[in-house]
Design brief:
The chain is of the alpha+beta class. The protein is built from 7 helices and 8 strands; from the N terminus they run ββααββααββββααα. It has a single domain, classed as Naphthalene 1,2-dioxygenase Alpha Subunit, Chain A, domain 1 (Alpha-Beta Complex). About 25% of the residues lie in helices and about 25% in strands. A hairpin with a 2-residue loop joins strand 7 and strand 8. Bound molecules: fe (ii) ion. Fe (ii) ion binds next to helix 7.
Length: about 190
Amino acid sequence: MEAWITQLAPYDPAELYEYPEGKIVKTIKANWKIVAENFMDGYHLAHLHSGTLAMYDHSKIEYGFVGSHFVFWEPCAPHYLENIEQNTPFRLIDPSPPERLGAYVPMLFPGIGLSESESSWSTFHIKPVVPDSSIVEMRSKFSAKDYSAFKKQEKRSARFWNSHIVAKFEGDSPTDPMASDDFMEEDVYACEQQ
Ligand SMILES: [Fe+2]
């Protein structure tokens, strides 16, 4: 890992705002360790999420253990970065120079992941239930305090998302997770298949 890459995003999540309506709770029919390994693994991003996470440059991923914890980082993709003020789905949080904007993704041992992007900060809490079932609770925080500013940026960036972020395969999106255009659905599917 390059020396300048910090293990956590260079901003303070205590200064961000949580939208309770953004909380996601999912049951995954897989052992919790499969879910944790999926979260930590950066190699699958370029394959499983080639359409849904196209805003990051997976070829530049940096990763490594930090004691019992594991972290990876990847920068924004050039086509996303070149007009990032417009393309970002939510107002930017990170004041870093452009080459350091990206996703910081630590897994705090054993089962609390953080997804710290240039525009959102999320916790990914994996709860074991029984050997072949886990619950994941995901909560997110953003820099815009009021919801209308949040929605305004979402609208402003729609052209980028509609033209660059696509499902992995064509299909019936309500029933086929690989046609869902949602990277979490892709991950749930991969974990359950394993
Ligand atoms: Fe994934």
